[in-house]
Design a protein that fits this description.
Number of domains: 1
Mean pLDDT: 94
Structural class: mainly alpha
Protein name: Kinesin light chain
Distance between the termini: 21 Å
Organism: Oidiodendron maius (strain Zn)
Shape: globular
Radius of gyration: 11 Å
Pfam families: TPR_12 (PF13424)
Order of helices and strands: HHHH
Number of helices: 4
Largest sheet: none
Strand content: under 5%
Helix content: over 70%
Length: 60
């Protein structure tokens, strides 16, 4: 969903959704589950698209 919102230029919503998805997957699946890592990637893409490079670098 965050990717769709990003393509629709709804970046604030995309950021919130990507954060929520990442938090949920970390809680339920943990790291380094592949689905959690996909959420990290998706969140990074959203942040980079917004120019939030430092925040994107700090994701782990």
């Amino acid at each position: 969903l965050a990717s769709v919102l990003r393509y629709q230029k709804r970046c604030d919503e995309a950021e919130k959704r990507s954060q929520r998805a990442l938090e949920g997957r970390e809680k339920e699946l943990g790291m380094p589950h592949s689905s959690t890592l996909t959420s990290v990637h998706n969140r990074t893409v959203v942040l980079v698209h917004q120019g939030k490079y430092k925040e994107a670098e700090n994701l782990d």
